[in-house]
Amino acid sequence: EVQLQASGGGLVQSGGSLRLSCVASGFAFSETSMSWLRRAPGKGSEWIAGIGPSGGSINYLDRVEGRFTTSRDNAKNTLYLHMNSLKPEDTGVYFCTYPGGGRGRGTLVTVSS
Questions:
Q1: What CA–CA distance (Å, rounded) separates 73 from 57?
Q2: Residue 99 neighbours by CB distance under 10 Å
Q3: Alpha-carbon span 27 to 14, nearest angstrom
Q4: SS3 at position 102
Q5: Which of 1, 4, 31, 91 has the most other CB atoms within 10 Å of its CB?
Q6: pLDDT tens per residue, range 26-63
Q7: Do residues 35 and 49 make contact, with C-beta atoms less than 8 angstroms apart?
C-alpha cells in the first residue's frame, strides 16, 4: 500500500520559516521523482517544486524560487521542503506526490500577516 504522509506544518508569521517532511512507503522511493503540491484555501492545487530520484533535476514554481528548497533522503524515504521568507499567500495544505501517484495526507501551513 502506497503511503505519503506530510508533516511539519503550522502557524507562522510572515517572514518566518518552516520545514516540511513527507515520509513515503509502498513504492520504490529512491527511483521516483517527487513533487510538492499546495492547495490554497478556496483554490485548486498547484505544483510548487519537483526533485529527481537522486536529488538532482530540481525545479520550482517561480513564485517560490529563492525562498523554498526541496531535498530528499533516500535512505529514510523522506522528502523535505524548507520554506523561508514565508508570505500569507503561501498559506495552504501541502502534499507530496509522484507521477501517477496519489497525494496522501497533507499538512496545513498558515502564514499570518
A1: 15
A2: 9
A3: 36
A4: coil
A5: 4
A6: 999 999 999 999 999 999 999 999 999 999 999 999 99
A7: yes
